[in-house]
Amino acid sequence: MSYMKNALIEHMEENARQVTMELGHKDTAFFIYLDNMHQPFDDLWRNFVEEFEDSYMGYYESDHDFYEEMAEHSSLFDEVSSDSPLRIYFDVSSWGRDLLLGGDYWRTDGHYFRGY
Predict the structure, then answer these.
(1) Angle at 86 between CA 82 and CA 66, to 5 degrees
(2) Cβ contacts of residue 72 below 8 Å, gap of 6+?
(3) What DSSP letter does each residue of 75-116 carry, written as one string?
(4) What is the pLDDT of residues 86-106, one digit of tens each?
(5) Domain spans, the chain
(6) Into which CATH architecture does domain 58-116 fall?
């Protein structure tokens, strides 16, 4: 098993321990509830994975790399010629920083995600 899979399993086990501690004597009932929900736990897990896939933008070495990629793949410059002064003077860093500050995207350790 890969390091990442082991780390995920450890993280899930830690979360289960925290749930058990927070719920106290109700922990057994909580896990019975999970087992008997109308939506099987596998479907819930699949939904989490789908939400992750929809949110994850990728890994970038720097904010600026992320900003440039976002600008290139957006419709921002669709009707602007490649030699236009607008492209030269456009402040990608300020625009990208606004995306992060506005909550549209967020990042941790070089991993970028959609915020909505």
Answers:
(1) 80
(2) none
(3) STTTTS-TT-HHHHH--HHHHHHHHHHTTSEEEETTEEEE--
(4) 767 777 788 889 888 988 899
(5) 58-116
(6) Orthogonal Bundle (1.10)
